[in-house]
Amino acid sequence: MEKEFIPYEQALALKELGFDEPCFGYYIGLGDNKETPFKLIQIQSEKEQFNWVDNVCHAPLYQQAFRWFREKYGYLPNIHDFNGNFKATLSGNCNWLGSWTKTYEEAELECLKKLIEIVK
């Protein structure tokens, strides 16, 4: 299930951009642990709450992140498959986002990174 959540680095970047939607996962900082500075915690329902502020970051699903970019900025990404190579574009725009990848999931991550870069 963890592969459905965006990675910590992108979750932190979304937090800096103002993402504050309810999520079924959170990254929790583990203080001075240099090998694993954060941990993904999955919750069972929206009723579960975390009281920490400084060391918690929402962990949205890829679907949530892409929806947020669509609703807030009007960006609608599309992943294209060219004979087993994948790359993303934004709807209505022929410019490619990110680099060519071997899997759909890698293309999603490249697309997410590029959307964060564009919005910053």
Give a description of the structure.
This protein is of the alpha+beta class. The protein has one domain: Bacillus phage protein. Helix content is 32%, strand content 26%. The protein has three helices and six strands. The strands form two sheets. A three-stranded antiparallel β-sheet has the order 2-1-3. It has a three-stranded antiparallel β-sheet with strand order 4-5-6. Helix 1 runs parallel beside helix 3 (104-119). The relative contact order is 0.18.
CATH class: Alpha Beta
Mean pLDDT: 83
The count of helical stretches stands at: 3
Which structural class fits the helix and strand makeup?
alpha+beta
**Largest sheet strand order:** 2-1-3
H and E string? HEEEHEEEH
Low-confidence stretches: none
Number of domains: 1
CATH topology value: Bacillus phage protein
Helix content percent band: 25-40%
Biggest β-sheet strands, sense, barrel: 3 strands, antiparallel
How much β-strand is present in the residues? Answer: 25-35%
User: Which CATH architecture?
Assistant: 2-Layer Sandwich
- Would you count the extended β strands for me? 6
Shape: globular
Could you tell me how far the N terminus lies from the C terminus, measured between alpha carbons in angstroms? 29 Å
Radius of gyration: 15 Å
Question: Could you provide a short overview of the structure?
Answer:
This protein is of the alpha+beta class and 120 residues long. The protein has helices spanning 8-17, 62-73, 104-119; strands at residues 25-29, 38-42, 56-58, 77-82, 85-90, 96-101.
